[in-house]
Amino acid sequence: MATVKRTSPTSLQIIKPDCLVATIYTDATTETADNPAGDTFIFDEVVRDTTTITQDENESTTIENEFSDDPIMEIVSLGKFQFAAEVADVQKDVLTSFANYTYDAAAKKLFAPAAYIKKYVKIDLVFKNGTDSEGNDKYMSVCIPKLQLNSRLMVESMNTNLMRLNLAGTAKSIALTVNGKTTKSAAYINEDFKMPTETE
Q1: CA distances (Å), 153 to each of 25, 90, 112, 145, 164, in order?
Q2: What pLDDT is stored for residue 32 in this prediction?
């Protein structure tokens, strides 16, 4: 039976992300969809109001009818999800991991790539979501399970600005299996995100 629901008593309003978590895909045999096997980076220094997860506008093609002003059908293609954030950290581990720079330890130099190299990461934009019964923080995230990177270093207006990494890319739709059910998706909201444990 159809229901009528006022949304305000149970509305979910999300603001002010807590951090950005990025995990690298390595193509290891132990790797599965939505569970990359590479290093995880927790970014908590991102330039304010530069983080976006947006979906391109849907594209539509109308098949017109020879004998009527009403079309026969409209074909709709969903827009792709795009991610971008300006990370205020250009240490060598960040540039080599997310912008394909090469580090020469003997020369102490970081070399920019001469050609594009395809690389994938999992992105979680993390928000605090209350506390549990023991008073510990709970988290939720907006997740892009597989993002093809298209990052670049930004060095501009350095007297009044900060060198930064424009961490960006396009989401790929992948098959995700949850509780025995497979769903193809390019993004999802995780209401019970588990913050990764930091290691030395």
Answers
A1: 21, 8, 9, 23, 6
A2: 84
